[in-house]
Amino acid sequence: MIEKRLRFTAILTGIFVLISLGVMFFRTVTKSVIIAAAENASFYKEVDGKEYLLEVSAPTGDKGQGTLVIPLEGGVNSDRITLEEKHGQHQFVLYIDGKSADFYSKNAVITDLECVQQGTFTPLNEKGLVRLTFQLDGLYENETSMGDREIVVSFKEPSDDYENVVVIDPVDEIGLEMIPYIRNYLNDKADIKIYYTTLDERRLNAEELKTLLADSHADYFIQLGIDETVESESGIRTYYNDKFFIRGFGNIQLADKLEMGVVSATEYKALGLAAATDNEELQASVVPSAFVTIGNLNNRVDHDKLEKSSYIEKCSQGVADGIIAAFNETNLEQQ
Description:
Blueprint: H1 2-20, E1 23-27, E2 32-37, E3 52-53, E4 56-57, E5 68-71, E6 81-86, E7 91-97, H2 103-106, E8 109-111, E9 116-123, E10 129-136, E11 141-147, E12 150-156, E13 164-170, H3 173-185, E14 192-196, H4 206-215, E15 220-227, E16 236-240, H5 251-266, E17 270-275, H6 280-284, E18 289-296, H7 300-305, H8 309-334
Parallel strand pairs: 2-6, 4-8, 13-14, 13-15, 15-18, 16-17
Antiparallel strand pairs: 1-2, 3-9, 5-8, 5-12, 6-7, 7-10, 9-10, 11-12, 16-18
Helix pairs in contact: 1-3, 3-8, 5-8
């Protein structure tokens, strides 16, 4: 049943990511290090549900000056580390499969960065798997490398280095399931930067979303999920912001590119574009915005399609194709 599937999608998404998503490459002076980038690791169960404050020490030498240095137990290599960027919550998260659950109660991180407001660790099992969460004072990009029994992280504010920037908002668990596929599909597009409002069930409030769109210098705002309309309707429908008019390539044009991309990838029928009259997030956006719905939960045919990962993957590829097509058109207009 789709209802059960929706309840467990976050779990399946996390597992899928850890197994199959692309990896992020970072180079140090002596070696290349591979750290897997986890889109959603919420399937981990906490041992006692408690977070503990990390001790943060000021640098006594060069180590930790302008960077965040995180100690590692001996024998912990990059294969046992995954990272997660929670853009909307301004958090940098690491999952470290270590040997001792209390290692970080005895070992401090080192930094002089004012942007790092607080660090916590949460034991996730009794064997040494922990989650480290660093609360930042804003939106940052990061570069990560591994040294001798340590991870070194540097942060920088978003810049205009990226020609094309998208903020993606998965509005339900089907939307969340699409994220790993989109990430994987756009992984080799160095000129497209994606920020996500969430990687779990927590949604941003209006002010948080407004801040993320502004800080990221977003060109587009795209929501992903499912529709719930009358039982007789089945297919792909894309909603657009009909409140804020944008000259040239605007809300309708973005919605059209996304709809065509998904319909082409899935070979499923298009229900067409519709005004997002009840969608406050889209209505408040001042950049081209659209909400792609990949099926109607109340329709039997769509219900069955939403049960299939292959369909979710095709829809995700269609969204990515639509994003690329939209940027191709806007960049051509600007030439």
